[in-house]
Amino acid sequence: MKVNSDFRNELLKRKEVLAEIEAGKNPGFLMSQKEIANHFKVSEELVVMKALRGNFGSSSFLIDAFIYDSAEDRDKIEPKKKVKAKGATASK
Fold first, then answer.
1. Architecture of domain 2-77
2. Between the N and C ends of the chain, which has fewer C-beta atoms within 10 Å?
3. Taking the model in full, what pTM does it have?
């Protein structure tokens, strides 16, 4: 893994990372999250993946991720996932 950019954002209490990884196929968000966590020696729950980009025919992928100082900081900043209500139907 090659780290292209490593910016510390004190206001949001996180590290903003742009890294490049070599892989034979698309590594996916979970594997990329594990790689970032291992490289920076932090817990996987503190890493938030923003983007994973690759070019056709290339074995290198760009990872855009945020590494938060704590889970509380992550929960304050990151948007919550919406949960669909069970049994809700659209009326006409």
1. 2-Layer Sandwich (3.30)
2. C
3. 0.80
* Alpha carbon distance 36, 58 (integer Å): 20
Domain boundaries, the chain: 2-77
Find all residues with CB under 8 Å of 2, minimum gap 6, and list them: 19, 20, 21
22 closest CA partner among 66, 68, 55: 55
- Name which of 51, 11, 5 is nearest 28 in CA terms: 51
- The set of residues, in sequence order, having a beta carbon less than 8 Å from that of 29 and lying 6+ positions away, is 49, 52
Per residue in 27-86, pLDDT (tens digit) is: 889 999 999 999 999 999 999 999 999 988 888 999 999 999 999 989 988 888 888 878
User: Contact at 8 Å (CB) between 12 and 77?
Assistant: yes
